[in-house]
Write a structure and sequence with these properties.
The structure is a single chain. The protein is an alpha/beta fold and 336 residues long. It contains twelve helices and 18 strands.
Length: 336
């Protein structure tokens, strides 16, 4: 992991809650070995901690706890309409970890979960089993890192490596591992595969400084991506969410120029572009606690239950970023 690894976890995981039924699971033992000085507390069910009432997500972010649990059903979900399927008919996502170690101001997880604590479902073998049944019906495109950042968390629980190794044995499965992390070294020992896409989210450095707390810099991400490309991995770039911030044209222009001054455009598998968007109820929950955020209190428009910028601004943002990227890569590689 990058130099910020220790800082990311320094004030967190002083306490680890463990469901009694998985106390001896191999993943449980691995995680507990990583935090030998943490206070261990047995619980009957993770929701007794994660879903209890009167929690404050934003206060908990200052000292997150870790919860080790077992997921009992619904391991694989159909992909949502607000997420890009990249032309794949059978689009699904899965969440073996709930919550993220980063603290992006625009993250929907702040409004979706009642707690900022991080839940790890240790029974990864059951995720694989349900996916096995699905693959008997048709090919599957699976996003494995939507409700967390698995690569950033790889030094705590090696789920990214385990998903990659699973996908290598299943050619009808294509997985996307999306991240802002520069923890590529944690999976670099694994050989690349045609059905595995490493996807990095990129933002202007100004947006990273202001809205993506604890995440690596743009330059650090680009250097990490370049290394993975040189190693033979398929790489996706995600300029998502594009934010309507002061001097946005200048910042996104610099971001895209820096991106392709470091990365060979012809080696990029594809690129996704998307503006800020969030389900209505999630944004409502976040606004109650972040009353001083101009980013989140922008007068968005709601369409089909999703808040985003007005159509005119959305078009300006998309058109500008698309044209900038299109000067480096062909249109068939750009997904909106």
């Amino acid at each position: 992991m990058n130099k910020s690894k220790d800082n990311l976890f320094m004030n967190s995981f002083s306490h680890i809650y463990i469901e009694k039924s998985i106390a001896t699971h191999p993943i449980t033992k691995k995680v507990l070995h990583r935090f030998p000085h943490a206070t261990r507390i047995e619980v009957n069910h993770y929701k007794d901690v994660f879903c209890r009432t009167r929690q404050n997500f934003f206060l908990q972010k200052n000292s997150r706890k870790l919860i080790l649990a077992v997921k009992k059903d619904r391991f694989i979900y159909p992909g949502t309409k607000v997420c890009q399927n990249f032309g794949n008919e059978h689009f699904y996502y899965t969440s073996s970890v709930l919550n993220c170690i980063y603290e992006c101001d625009y993250c929907y997880l702040q409004g979706m979960y009642p707690s900022a604590n991080i839940v790890v479902f240790v029974n990864i073998e059951d995720f694989f089993s349900e996916l096995e049944s699905l693959l008997q019906k048709h090919p599957v495109y699976l996003s494995i890192s939507y409700d967390t950042d698995l690569l950033a968390f790889e030094n705590v629980v090696p789920f990214a490596s385990m998903w990659i190794q699973y996908a290598r044995r299943h050619p009808d499965l294509q997985i996307e591992l999306r991240t802002k992390s520069v923890n590529y070294s944690a999976i670099r020992h694994l050989p690349p595969s045609e059905n595995i896409v490493l996807a990095w989210t990129l933002s202007p450095q100004e947006a990273i400084n202001e809205f993506e707390q604890k995440t690596p810099s743009l330059n650090a991400r680009l250097k990490c991506i370049k290394q993975s490309i040189n190693d033979g991995w398929k790489v996706r770039l995600c300029f998502d969410p594009i934010l309507y911030i002061e001097k946005w044209q200048e910042h996104y222009k610099q971001c895209i120029q820096e991106t392709f001054s470091i990365l060979p455009a012809e080696k990029i598998k594809d690129i996704s572009i998307g503006v800020f968007r969030m389900p209505r109820d999630y944004l409502k929950n976040i606004r109650k606690n972040k009353i001083d955020s101009p980013l989140l209190h922008y007068p968005f428009e709601c369409k089909n239950g999703i808040y985003s910028y007005p159509e005119q601004i959305t078009r300006q943002l998309i058109d500008f970023v698309y044209q900038m990227i299109h000067s480096y890569v062909p249109s068939e590689k750009i997904y909106l």
